[in-house]
Amino acid sequence: MIKTAAINIKHLLLVGITIFPLLITSQVQAQTASPSPAASPSAAPSNAVTFPIPDLGNCENKGECLAFCDDPVNYNSCVEFAKQKNFYIPDKVLSADETLWKQTQTDLGCNSQESCLNLCSQPENQDKCDGFAKDEGLIGGYVQEPDNPDFIDQAKVNLGCDSAQSCSSFCDQPGNAQKCSEFAKQVGLLGGQVTQGPGGCASEGTCKSYCSDPNNFEQCKPFSPPNTPFQGPGGCTDSSSCRSHCEQNPDDCRSYSPGSNGRYVPIACPNGQFFGPGGACTSNDKTNEASSCAQGGQYWSGSSCQTTPPPGIDPKAGGAFFQSRADMGGCQTPGE
Question: Which of the two ends of the chain, N or C, has the fewest CB atoms closer than 10 A to its terminal CB?
């Protein structure tokens, strides 16, 4: 389900989810309009970031955090963390209207998130995509400038190159791949060998979780083994059958639309149940138990309170997300 792709140290993201990694340092404060008061020696500021970070898979450095937040399954966890630390920047691409896509068509020759991502993943287009991202104030462009003096100084010591061009040439040589990958991880750059699956998922577990969202069926199909038809949750074989299975078995599925906590929300709960914390169908007689669980910051499964949520679900990332469904009359909420 996952493939390995080689990328160099100047890997570009136009349509990315690296909101947090673009800004993080080992201990950083968000900029404010007025000077910050002197830091107390006994306590770190509320928006300080120190490693490891439990909310981001216990990542221990910028490189690990970057890899964690590149995985679409972790998108909402990273957004929530960035909001808590006051350095969240909304991604214009995720809520793009016709105006943005007309502009990309004129400047780049693509007119959708998918077509622009495909275009900008090609090395020959990276410079113009980077320029467009910067001109339009989009999240993306080069992940940190590769000619940043701090990086070049470290590259001189670790890689023996002294400019972005010489380092790029050095890292394009197969024999230097491991050394460059380790350097990229150390300084928080994208580089080396990355494991990449549907939507950018980075492990068998997160790819399986990502592909349990029926909206991602078409993305996941090309990643099935040769001569083996792709099957989604419950063995479903197309978007329609996957949606049908998820309506009857929501615990088998996930939803990774922006704003979701990862839980799949069905069109309706069975008789005698209501939409409880996080969108979980809950028996009416468990109302108080569900409420207490949510107030305690724990995960409510629909029948019990759990300390650890299932993979792909983040109770801290707001509520569940119910997407408008054309196959059901364009309804916008479970109630409709």
Answer: C
pLDDT attached to residue 273: 93
Alpha-carbon distance of 175 to 212, in angstroms, equals 38
Tell whether 68 and 123 lie within a shared domain. no
- Cβ atoms of 265 and 255 closer than 8 Å: yes
Beta-carbon contacts of 154 under 8 Å, excluding residues fewer than 6 positions away, are: 183, 186, 187
- Separation between Cα atoms, residue 130 and residue 108, nearest integer Å: 11
Q: Domain count for the chain, please give it.
A: 3
175 and 188 Cβ atoms separated by less than 8 Å = no
Shared-domain flag, residues 51 and 179:
yes
The domain in which residue 106 lies consists of: 98-138
Q: What is the pLDDT of residues 178-212, one digit of tens each?
A: 788 778 766 666 544 445 688 778 778 888 899 99
| Spatial separation of the C-alpha atoms in residues 126 and 141, rounded to whole Å | 8
Pairing mode, if any, of strands 192-196 and 254-255? unpaired
Nearest CA-CA partner of 277 in 268, 286, 324, 325: 286
Asked whether residue 254 falls in the same domain as residue 314, the answer is: yes
Distance CA 21, CA 6 (A): 20
Whether residues 159 and 20 share a domain: the answer is yes
Q: Closest Cα to residue 84, out of 327, 323, 336, 318?
A: 318
- What confidence score (pLDDT) does residue 301 get? 92
What does the block give as tokens for 149? 């003096």
Percentage above 70 pLDDT, the chain: 71
* Residue in the structure block whose two tokens are 């949606």: 243
Helix (H/G/I), strand (E/B), else coil: 16: coil
Give the 3-state secondary structure of 308-330: CCCCCCCCCCCCCCCCCEHHHCC
3-class SS at 239?
Answer: helix
CB-count exposure of residue 146 (10 Å: 0-12, 13-18, 19+)? buried
pLDDT score of 95 more than 90: no
- Asked whether residue 70 falls in the same domain as residue 191, the answer is yes
